[in-house]
Amino acid sequence: MLKTKLLNKIKNKEIVVGVVGLGYVGLPLAVEKAKAGFKTIGFDVQEEKVSLVNDGKNYIGDVVDSELSNLVEKHLLSATSDFSFIKNVDFIAICVPTPLDSHQQPDISYVKASSEAISKHLRKGTMVVLESSTYPGTTEELVKPILESGSGLVCGTDFYLGFSPERVDPGNAFYHTKNTPKVVGAIGDEATEVIAAMYRSVLDGDIHEVSSPAVAEMEKILENTYRNINIGLVNELCMLCEKMGISAWEVIDAAKTKPFGYQAFYPGPGLGGHCIPLDPYYLTWKAREYGFHTSMIENSMIINDKMPEYCIERTYKILNKQEKALKNSKILVLGVAYKNDIDDYRESPSLKLIELLLKEDAEVSFYDPYIAEYKFKGKTYTGITDINPKVIEEYDLLIIATSHKVYDLNMIVESAKMIFDTRNALSEYKDYANIELL
Ligand SMILES: NC(=O)c1ccc[n+]([C@@H]2O[C@H](COP(=O)([O-])OP(=O)(O)OC[C@H]3O[C@@H](n4cnc5c(N)ncnc54)[C@H](O)[C@@H]3O)[C@@H](O)[C@H]2O)c1
Known about the structure:
By secondary structure, the chain is α/β, with parallel strands linked by helices. The protein has 14 helices and 15 strands. The strands form three sheets. Strands 3-2-1-4-5-6-7-8 form an eight-stranded mixed β-sheet, sandwiched between helices. A five-stranded parallel β-sheet has the order 10-9-13-14-15, with helices on one face. α5 (about 110-120) packs parallel to α6 (about 140-150), α8 (about 215-245) crosses α10 (about 280-290) and α8 runs parallel beside α11 (about 295-320). The protein is elongated, with a radius of gyration of 24 Å. About 45% of the residues are buried. The mean pLDDT is about 95. The protein binds nicotinamide-adenine-dinucleotide. Nicotinamide-adenine-dinucleotide binds near residues 49 and 275.
């Protein structure tokens, strides 16, 4: 019986793991599986990543360099772009991107392509789990038929299929892949039991089983939409507070003294990252199939998407007070990563901010200690390599767009003519007249 056979293999650490997509989510997961003693093969279409892993070289901030190299040395971890090796694995986690297309619609092509590649080599007795964030229904309506038709196998009898959302929080000092609770929903009770057992054998966090992949897919979207909406709320409040002459940050600090029923979220120049700005769009798209409008989500996205433009309006006003025009003003944007202390700039509001400033003919540079250059809409942008008092003094305005902890705030405040702080990074410098807070 498939269930007993797989449970025994898990217990005896005889499972060979395949992780498809070796990015921010897939590489840490592959490392955890290998650390737990499972032989693990990573699959990626990018030859560069495959070579780096096989050379024992790490390229993801949340992975410890020495752990990766030790696992490669011990032959517990390897990588390939050859999907024929799928036939050698018993457990497959799919961690490929789920972005939006140019019309803000789900781009599910990576999930389709990887499922098709897997299906050609899928063998009896394998567990397949989709981990990419996506709309409810993807696993059963899209992945299952691709795997069945490509392999000729039957889901539930020949192989198990489920969904288990990834909850990686890049840069989080406490929660990482190993100790974050995980939700598992598979097609059929046996599949859920076995896939949950597999995760339990590797991770320390609770493994919470749900009745179907769709429940697990929806709960992931709920997590991210919850953040999206609450950030939308404080962004709206922030815009109103400015008109009323009240500090939104002081209001939030006061509200969070309530020990129950309130969780603090903060305004900013817009949403960033591969999850919070994108996942709600997956739900609004799917909802339309049911003639349903997710109006609360769409409203919050309207507010959040407006924040870079709102920051430009504020920039105009700040410069105006200095009797300067935005055109030809020298502006330094501090931080292009979408959040502090990481090197990921996907969907970062800084990119939109810089684009808008350039459109207004400002002279814009950026500095990010983690990102030397970035690509946006087909163009490459290169930052300045260092900041010091001499460099800072040259600018009419500094915009703190990402509050990396490594900034020398004292030096920045002492040398800048004017600072627009969109992250409340300078909360300790309240008395300085050259700071304007979002
Ligand atoms: N980054 C995060 O913080 C985070 C957190 C939670 C969930 N997620 C979700 O996890 C998924 C992956 O995100 P990520 O940040 O790891 O993306 P990523 O871009 O860092 O990594 C994805 C990897 O998949 C590879 N890939 C693309 N097509 C492939 C194919 N057909 N076969 C094999 N490999 C392929 C890419 O080359 C890349 O290395 C997304 O759905 C995302 O929404 C991401």
